[in-house]
Amino acid sequence: MSSRFDASSKVTNKEFATVAPPPRWLIIVTFSIVLLMFFAASAGVYVFQNSLRPGQQQRVINALPFMQVFVNRPDMPRTLPTALVATLDAVIPSTLPSHLLTLSSPAPIDTPVWRDVTSSRTVESSATPVIRSTPTIEARALSPTPEPVGIEPLPSTAFISGLSHEFQTWNNCGPATITIALSHFGWAENQAFAASFLKPNEEDKNVTPREMVQFVNSQTNVRALTRMGGTLDLVRAFISRGFPVIVSIGYAPEGEEWFGHYRAVIGYDDLTQDFYAYDSYLGTGEDGRGLVVSYDEFDSTWQDFNRNFIVLYEQGAEERIASILGERGDVMRAAELALETARRETELDPRNGFAWFNQGTALVALERYDEAALAYDMARQHELPWRMLWYQFGPYEAYFAVGRLDDVTALVMANLNNGGTYVEETHFWQGQVYLMQGETDNAIASFRRALEANPLYSAAQDAIAVLEAQCTSC
């Protein structure tokens, strides 16, 4: 057996010996193709990471899911930076440039009003608004005598019918949600129409409640208003009377970090202690009746945005809306009530960063900037989400008003390093700091970058108009 095995082995080896090696040119071509594919893949990843905007990257990921692993995730703090000073040492400087103007938060939407931070006077901007709005009741106060919400017992269950749900396209929560709510009134346009007015640049990270209200009041036959400091009873009262409500909430999708989000509330059930909502991201729930959100969860996520809400109603319903709003018909009183709530919540839990932040936001609306800056200092000690300033901009205004420009700049730079370059307010406040420092050219460049993020951003448009007018008169 041994000799037979050896003979067989010799034959096999001889047979292998007769196999010719591949031609040299084939080896070279194969190696070249592999090398070319490697460089092409590397170049593709480089372009994906460094040349494509987030929206373009998302479209690539939708087609090639494995590309998700190549998304650049910068090494950065996962919370807002803490304040640069522990206590408020800075005061409003005695002299500020006369051209330094900032938008006043409580101003009516249909009349741009600017406040000179060197005094308490207000002046109407001569700049023409990009989107003209029809007269609205979004003023300081509503005229009808308010009827307290609690006088009429609310039904234990109520739903609003006739809404059409639409899943949001990428980064389009605001336009999709306002479209859903408008569908109750027979609105037939889709979210792309709303986005063309609300965020013509798809990369724009945020549409504010104020912008959504302006869109409704200027582009539709429906009316809308927004307030801070809402309550669960107030939402229930609106729903029971047939008025859709949109709320601003904090939301963390599975595998993702905290985002700002909108939901259209369309029903409630006191027996189960649940609200029902149409969500542009999550849908309409298992039975299509609405996404079920418990009262506790609803309020917890709503707190992240100082319980801000938008209510939509048909023309002629002003008295009914005023009756439901009660004291909150006055925007300043609404801010005072929001402040009271936030203070109670910080007393119950001094580590609640959102409650401290809400105090600051309410105080900014009341133009009590010294107190607001201190409240934001406290908020920033308690690990707020790093995307916070994609959506809420009170800290910029408060720190700026009290002369703490380093804090404004620190927050601006944090935002620019975490995707906030597509948030127009980031560049606007950077421009304000440049103006304070006498760097007019840099300020104008910042305002123009704000317009790149949102070409319809009136605050930047008006700021540039003011500066250009001054240059002309010089």
What is the mean predicted local confidence, pLDDT? 80
Number of strands: 10
Order of helices and strands: HHHEEEEHHHEHEEEEHEHHHHHHHHH
Q: Going by CATH, what is the homologous superfamily of the largest domain?
A: Cysteine proteinases
Fraction of residues in β-strands: 5-15%
Task: Report helical residue fraction.
Answer: 40-55%
| Large-scale geometry | globular
> From the alpha-carbon coordinates, what is the Rg to the nearest angstrom?
28 Å
Tell me the major beta sheet.
Answer: 7 strands, antiparallel
Can you tell me the CATH class of the largest domain?
Answer: Alpha Beta
Number of helices: 17
Distance between the termini: 110 Å
Number of domains: 3
Are there runs of 5+ residues with pLDDT below 50, and where? 1-5, 86-141, 143-151
CATH architecture of the largest domain: Alpha-Beta Complex
Structural class: alpha+beta
By CATH, the topology of the largest domain is: Cathepsin B, Chain A
Keywords:
17 helices; 3 domains; disordered N terminus; seven-stranded antiparallel sheet; alpha+beta
